[in-house]
Amino acid sequence: MRAILVANPKGGCGKTTLAVNLAGMLARRGRKTLLWDLDRQRSSFEWLALRSEDLPEVSRLDAGHDDRRLPRGDSWLVMDTPAGLHGKNLAHAIKPSHKVLVPIQPSLFDMAAAQDFLGVLAEEKAVRKHKTFIGIVGMRVDTRTRAALTLETFLRQFDLPVITFLRDTVLYANAALSGKSIFDLPPSQIERDLEQWQPLIDWIES
Ligand SMILES: Nc1ncnc2c1ncn2[C@@H]1O[C@H](COP(=O)(O)OP(=O)(O)OP(=O)(O)O)[C@@H](O)[C@H]1O
Ligand SMILES: [Mg+2]
């Protein structure tokens, strides 16, 4: 099984949006996909509860599941995490993960909050031993703005790959209302988004 952790202690940076869309994307690509919500707010599981059976299946990994016994085999697990995750709980979540995605928005507050977190991540044993790989995803980025340039400059100081920038669009919120990812929307609506997701899909599957 391959496990992808979505984490950033900053609240509202886009963890759940990224996690459910990753799950929706993997399911749409025919992967056996599991979703695990470590957040007590259960936003990802709420999304899953709204998801129709006609859509590519995303299964829920039960609450209280023992992460030392993650399912084996050819499945993909996406883990959504709560704001404020740090210390032992963070280390615990990183350990079984092959990849950690860090969504960051191009605002001063989000960058300041990410500074420490990215430093801590880089020091994690699994990361230093190259058992876990970290990738950054710019969220709600309009690449024509000064804010986007500032984010790019900020991220250059870390020796971490910036996988892609996802634009600010209501498609994510609208799709989520019916348990959909943007990959469940008509292709004509998501042309630009597919282009932005492609580097992320390549990185995830590499
Ligand atoms: N690319 C995007 N375009 C437009 N809106 C977005 C985008 N990404 C996230 N949002 C919106 O930003 C808000 C916060 O996103 P989300 O809930 O995914 O963040 P979070 O990190 O999971 O928050 P929390 O820390 O509370 O769990 C939501 O209303 C979501 O719809
Ligand atoms: Mg969330």
Comma- or semicolon-separated keywords:
206 residues, alpha/beta, Rossmann fold, seven-stranded parallel β-sheet, 8 helices, 7 strands, 17% strand, globular, binds adenosine-5'-triphosphate, binds magnesium ion
Strand content: 15-25%
List the total number of helices: 8
**Chain-averaged pLDDT:** 92
CATH homologous superfamily title: P-loop containing nucleotide triphosphate hydrolases
Task: Give the count of structural domains.
Answer: 1
Task: Write a compact overview of the structure shown.
This protein has 206 residues and is of the alpha/beta class. Helix content is 40%, strand content 17%. The protein has one domain: P-loop containing nucleotide triphosphate hydrolases (Rossmann fold, 3-Layer(aba) Sandwich), CATH 3.40.50.300.
What does this protein structure show overall?
There is one protein chain. Helix 1 (15-28) runs parallel beside helix 2 (43-50). The protein starts with a strand and ends with a helix. It has a seven-stranded parallel beta sheet with strand order 3-2-4-1-5-6-7, with helices on both faces. It is 40% helix and 17% strand. With 206 residues, the chain is an alpha/beta fold. The relative contact order is 0.19. The mean pLDDT is 92. The longest helix has 16 residues, at 108-123. It has one domain: 3-Layer(aba) Sandwich (Rossmann fold), CATH 3.40.50.300. The site of adenosine-5'-triphosphate has 17 residues, from helix 1 and helix 7.
